Amino acid sequence: MLTYVIGSGLGWTFFDFARRRVGETVSAVPAVIFIMLIQTLINLPFGGWTEPFSQSAGWWSIALASVLTNAVANVFFVMGVQRAPFTLGVPLLSLTPALAAAVGTVYHGENLTLRQWAGVAVVVGFALWLGWRGESRKLTRREVGGLMMMATTALLWAITPFFDRACTLSGQVRLTIYVASQCLGVATALLIPGMLNAKTRTEILSTAKRYREWWKWSLIAAIAASIGLYFQIKGISVGAVGLFEAFKRSTTLLLSLGLGFFVLKEPLTRAKIVAAIGMAVGIFLLA
Asked: What's the whole-model pTM score?
């Protein structure tokens, strides 16, 4: 599982970072639409385009549920990182493993050991503490709103892995075409209502005309997301979702702190250093 954790963690970390860069010049809904369309094109050449059409109605209902939760989560994520500091917002996604572990235990019979539950609790606890104390200053109302959006994203992303596993576990739909179908579904789910709203339609059309401003970071985001999702689906197929998410989020948090400090020049406060050490302890307990 370690290979899948590292691959997924690296993919999602660079996805988060690239998506933040896109969000600096593009509003949330258009950003998600165009990243998802690029990601669809990246995965289509691998073939298997007709595989989803041979699946049952039950498969399609689960895939649709994944599309809808992903669509909302992606919009909230972009809005969240536009409002909250990167090194505070991303750690809140570490709520995901605790929520995923709870869902897995109640509905899927995924029983973690006491030590693994302790590891999940440590990961989540330090992530929340980092969001509370990380900047060593009072947060603005806009920043607090951004953190709430990130927490909502964490809840939605605790649910989607179970949908993904259910749709890919049989092996009847290859991962690349599943990723492509999900991305196209998310883009469509946002594009249709977006074009019916005058303000959002203007944003989408304006963004399309300004493609030179965002296409490079969108391409990086699409590639990184494909890598992250591929390793994630492989990982949750061999282990408990909550356990995998705790490993992955710990890796993502540590990488995000590094990117925030070295690239975004966000201060590395004492709280962030303590949180990084605490996350390392959580990883040890999970191992």
From this structure: 0.81
